[in-house]
Amino acid sequence: xxxxxxxxxxxxxxxxxxxxxxxxxxxxxxxxxxxxxxxxxxxxxxxxxxxxxxxxxxxxxxxxxxxxxxxxxxxxxxxxxxxxxxxxxxxxxxxxxxxxxxxxxxxxxxxxxxxxxxxxxxxxxxxxxxxxxxxxxxxxxxxxxxxxxxxxxxxx
Length: 156
Known about the structure:
Strand content: 15-25%
Strand order of the largest sheet: 1-2-3
Order of helices and strands: EEEHEHEEH
Number of domains: 1
CATH architecture: 2-Layer Sandwich
Shape: elongated
């Protein structure tokens, strides 16, 4: 997730218990931060060739990636795609910045990521963006209705 106000990115990572943890990083960190700031998809087919690659972001638990459970030393390639929110009620200064990013690590059979992989992931990201926009919009409507209800209560 991207927090442009605080210039942070954060991950929600499942811990060893049932509780999830939030892990924060500077939005200047890693390939996720690069995509979060630039709003453009990025393919790194040899992660060691990219100074933006930050193992700490891809491996918040230390030894293994939380999703792929692969040792980080085996991280070969990453496809990172922004997720945009399509909500007209957002503050104009944040309207065209990604809300989150998708990172896909290590394509099957050690193949490099392609432009077709990127296009397909971008289609998925648009779908996710629309879902997030709907959720945010419904949340905002609830807040507005609650404020209206509370203002009526305070006048009586």
